[in-house]
Design goal:
Elements: H1 9-60, E1 77-78, H2 80-83, H3 91-97, H4 104-109, E2 162-163, E3 165-170, E4 202-206, E5 214-215, E6 218-219, H5 227-230, E7 234-236, E8 262-267, E9 272-276, H6 307-312
Parallel strand pairs: 3-7
Antiparallel strand pairs: 1-6, 2-5, 3-4, 4-8, 8-9
Protein name: DUF1559 domain-containing protein
Pfam families: N_methyl, SBP_bac_10
Keywords: Membrane, Transmembrane, Transmembrane helix
């Protein structure tokens, strides 16, 4: 027998089982709702960054360079993220970093200024990406060199603040000086240079922890470090979205996100779109002159390119179907 207000053991077990089933049914829905909210926040970050680019263009008549270069020596250089700080309500940080007065290397070598490069800026962080706000070595055998090493006064483990958003340099190596995207090494691209149309051209894409993220402040040794330095602020579209291999440093030059099924991209017109990791992909038309530190114009066959490659180029002249 049981008391008037009591439960039998069987009844209690049934109740617990029902609660467990309800939790199992509701948990995926809760997780999906949370991811939807995180993805919307990520979308807004990209929109606001793209707006910063447009405002930069209004003032200077061009977009900032994907990464600076001096042409000689190995030197840490400012990236596009540093140059748009005044246009994303970070004027004070821009001035304190001395972006217009000196190289990034000089700021990093200054012990009073160095901590500023670790400033957490939410606009550069995708809420779905795990970990802290500093650059992470990633999970795809890409941890080596994911810090600003070799500086005269910085130890080899110094990490700057991360950015989950990197510039689209085009179809060729991220260190190519004459790439065909919007943001590449030493680029000075205007709206008029985007002859494919701003609504058909990538501006920014995502890079997650698995592929070692990026840095909003700039690049490591962009003039001599090759792709391993320039990929801190730029990526290329001749590696699939959400690539799972880091052979030949592919993952750290690619675009990848923690959003299931694809990645968000900001277009040059300021819009943001989700690009599926099954998007039409074909890089067979990418031909010669595509290596790092190359001054010769890269060559490609626009008739033998996938939609993903075409979206990454500003002037390939090929139509975009199913964008």
């Amino acid at each position: 027998m049981r008391g008037k207000n009591g439960f039998t053991l069987v009844e209690l077990l049934v109740v617990i089982a029902i609660i467990g089933v309800l939790i199992a049914l509701l948990l995926p829905a809760v997780q999906q709702a949370r991811e939807a909210a995180r993805r919307m926040s990520c979308n807004n970050n990209l929109k606001n960054l793209a707006l910063g680019f447009h405002n930069h263009h209004d003032v200077f008549g061009q977009f900032p360079a994907g990464g600076e270069h001096t042409g000689t020596g190995d030197r840490e250089m400012w990236g596009w993220g540093a140059h748009i700080l005044p246009f994303i309500e970070q004027n004070s940080l821009y001035d304190r970093l001395k972006v217009t007065d000196q190289f990034l290397k000089d700021t990093l070598d200054d012990t009073t200024l160095r901590p500023l490069t670790q400033t957490k800026l939410e606009i550069f962080i995708c809420p779905s990406d795990p970990g802290g706000h500093l650059m992470d070595g990633g999970q795809m055998n890409s941890g080596t060199g994911r810090h600003f090493n070799g500086l005269s006064s910085v130890n080899n483990s110094f990490r700057v603040a991360k950015s989950n958003y990197i510039g689209v340099c085009g179809m060729f190596d991220v260190d190519h000086r004459r790439n065909n995207g919007v943001l590449f090494r030493g680029s000075e691209i205007r709206f008029a240079d985007i002859t494919d149309g701003t609504s058909n051209t990538f501006l920014l894409g995502e890079r997650n922890r698995r592929c070692a993220q990026g840095a909003w402040v700039g690049n490591r040794n962009v003039t001599g470090g090759g792709p391993q330095g320039a990929d801190y602020t730029m990526g290329r579209v001749t590696i699939p979205v959400n690539h799972t291999s880091n052979a030949s440093h592919q993952c750290v030059e690619a675009f990848a996100s923690e959003h299931p099924g694809g990645s968000l991209f900001a277009y040059a017109d300021g819009s943001v779109h989700f690009i599926s990791d099954t998007i039409d992909y074909n890089n067979a038309g990418v031909n010669g002159n595509n290596q790092s530190n190359n001054d010769a114009p890269p060559t490609f066959n626009s008739n033998n390119l996938g939609t993903y490659q075409r979206l990454g180029a500003r002037d390939d002249g090929a139509p975009i179907d199913g964008n």
